[in-house]
Amino acid sequence: MIDLLLASAITLSVPLVLAALGGAIHRRSGTVNIGLEAHMILGALIGAVVSGATGNWAAGALAGLVAGALSGLLMNLVITRLKGNEIIVGLGYNIVMFGVIGYVLRAVFGVSGTLQVDGLQRMPKLVIPGVADVPILGALISGKDPLFWLCVVLVPVLAWLLRSTTWGVRLRATGASEPASASLGLRTLAIRDGAGIVAGALAALGGVALSLGTVGLFNENMTAGRGYVALAAFYFGRSKPLPTALACLLFGFFDALQIRLQTVGGFNADIISTLPYIAVVVVLAFTGIRQHYRGARALS
Amino acid sequence: MSTARAERLPSSDPAAVRCRIGARGISRSFGPVRANVDVTLTVRPGTVHAVVGENGAGKSTLMRMLYGLDQPDAGSVIVDDEEILLSSPRAAIERRIGLVQQELAIIPELSLLENLVLGQEPGAFGRIDWKAAQKRAEELSRSVGVAIDWSASAARTSIAIQQQVEILRLVYRGADVLILDEPTAVLAPVQADELLGLLSSLRDAGRTVIFISHKLDEVLSIADHITVLRSGRTITELEPGEIDRAGLAAFIVGDSEMPNRPTTRGNPGTVVLHADAISAVDDRGVTRLDGVAFEARAGEILGIAAVAGNGQEELAEVLIGIRASSSGELSLDGQGIGRMSVRARRRAGLAYVSADRKQEGLALGLSLADNSIASPALKELARAGWLRPSAVAARVDAVLGRAAVRFGSASDPASSLSGGNQQRVVLGRETIGKPRVLIASQPTRGVDVKGIGYIHELLRRARDEGAAVVLFSEELDELRELSDRILVLHRGRVAGVLDGESSRAEIGELMLGHTSHASHDRPVEGEDA
């Protein structure tokens, strides 16, 4: 029982972690990426379609990543070069993306809502011999898809990149004070665009994790606000990779719990399904209170 | 510092460049404003060259052109005796010219070491070699004789240290001409001395320094040459030996324009403000005020002197109510006000000139009219919640007229005024209602010589109208010129109360806490915790 819950929590966290890490990188460069939801749904669709066309999940994931990178760049250019307000641009971008995808589903595929792709290859579940049967540990790391392992690698790698490379230091500098960074000769707009590309690409991989994960189909509502939950996660994690990923695990746990409670029955399904989102609000309130006290002390 | 100048070897540059950087006949206009008119400047290699002048004399415009941030309409910039076009800061950097602007380019989120190397990080393939960076940083700070904890977060270091890091960053990037735009304006006296020492070391190492300052004493003490600008024109070039402070001030403001500065004293009456055993902590919980007690009388100016970090900021904030006191009593005309909100205190007759003019004194984006009437007294100008335009206009005229603010239209944003004029708007607004107590914190910080005269006049006028003026200032001469009594704070306690005519030495001794010089620059205990 607890094994199943944990395994499910981790699987459900993977899309969140990818999107939130992308958002965190983008945030460190100075932009709050409201468009994560759009990048995710695009990645989910492209991943599913290309996986179906090629019969290869990796090709699907790669295509989703590239589409997300382009999508991230496009949105970011509006913010950096046309000086659009990041909140308005992000919200508008989400609305446009979902509108276009709904239209494409009808016009190109002749379906509404759900797209079953023929020949779609789902991601493999990597069962680790020997570990699979160990209690708890088996549930935690065995039988996971490759994107789970990507997350495991990304968290320390991103932390290292931010800390110890020119890219990371310049990115943080740009995010903290763009005019000062520009005056030191940093190409701040290019740095911010690069971060936007990373955010789009990672969020789109999060979408791929949804469509090529357990279900193996595309639905235009399958992101279900995860792009916004990812915002809450990197806000809670102060845009640091590890805390951000842990926040995602917390939200993933509540998502898994919600699903279990639905199957147990006895509760109103609609109310139960709000559980992860209530968790988000509680965490955000907690973060706000914590920052209030920190801020009060940090003022000089 | 003068000895350093005497012993210094001639410039090590064998090519014997006469003008390392300068200007030949530069003119620059912005619309109808002629910021620079036929300006000529010659800065010799290996010297400290001060550029002085009032706010709006064209100093910053000239510096921006020397750094390639702006280009002259006529004339040209000289680098190494050649007329050249500096089309961008990048071109200036290639000629080894660096600029420290008033807004520091220090990134608070990064450590000081990260700030130093940012943009030119040592290492290969994108990986930063932090060991090499640390080594280079330590070499740099040792070579100029400053102590810097490079691993500290920039956000947690003082502005003085940030400024040193910014200067060392220019050196790290290979600059040997350093242009500093009013570097000491934001520093406490001790910190300013340290900065001047740093500049001397840089000069002694053969670098060329140009700096702008309003503080004539420091100009005379450190500069090898002084160029005076007035109304965008070069007035004269001097050497410190040729002139004294008063003579230099006369060049800066012009002969006839020196404002009249009577040294009248006040006529102290009854006690208005009474503070008893006030204690308070700063934002980090460190005790900054420890049992401060004093009285301020109607019709007097009570000066508050202290080395920065000894509690004067906190005291000003406690008096107006922005900061809560942890214990003690505060009363106005015998009525306890220590628990009142800022709003209630202002209603009761307190007025406040914040040390932070741009954030707390004014709403820079709003019009002069809005800034002139922004106070709890706004109700007087309204009927049933509606502002009466005639009353508003009359009040705006009264405030701006009282303070003799030079402005175009009352609907212009406050940001369109010079610093000195902005401060006059604040003082006009705060004193128009004849407050019982005027708390003025660093009212002349960053204001030019002539502007200071006007501000002093406004403070005296408030005093003569019966206010108890509590004046916080880091300028001892200003305190001595204006105050009837001077209260000296040391480590959050009252070190003593002196007569306004006391000498600098007497005040200075109390500021240092009657002890040897060993502890004078150490702030209240717990600072480094």
TrEMBL record, chain A:
CDD domains the record matches: TM_PBP1_transp_TpRbsC_like
Main location: membrane
UniProt-annotated location(s): Cell membrane
Pfam family, one: BPD_transp_2
Keyword field: Cell membrane, Membrane, Transmembrane, Transmembrane helix
Entry keyword Cell membrane: yes
A GO MF label: transmembrane transporter activity
Bilayer topology: Multi-pass membrane protein
One cellular-component annotation, GO: plasma membrane
InterPro entries (alphabetical): ABC_transp_permease
Positions of transmembrane segments: 57-79, 91-109, 146-162, 197-218, 271-289
Protein name, UniProt field: ABC transporter permease
Biological source species: Naasia lichenicola
TrEMBL record, chain B:
SUPFAM superfamilies hit by this protein: P-loop containing nucleoside triphosphate hydrolases
Gene3D superfamilies documented for this protein: P-loop containing nucleotide triphosphate hydrolases
SMART domains to which the protein is assigned, alphabetical: AAA
Start and end residues of each ABC transporter domain: 21-256, 273-516
Alphabetized Pfam families for the sequence: ABC_tran
GO MF term set: ATP binding; ATP hydrolysis activity
Highest taxon in the source lineage: Bacteria
UniProt keyword list: ATP-binding, Nucleotide-binding, Repeat, Transport
Protein name: ABC transporter ATP-binding protein
Organism: Naasia lichenicola
High-level lineage: Bacteria, Bacillati, Actinomycetota, Actinomycetes, Micrococcales
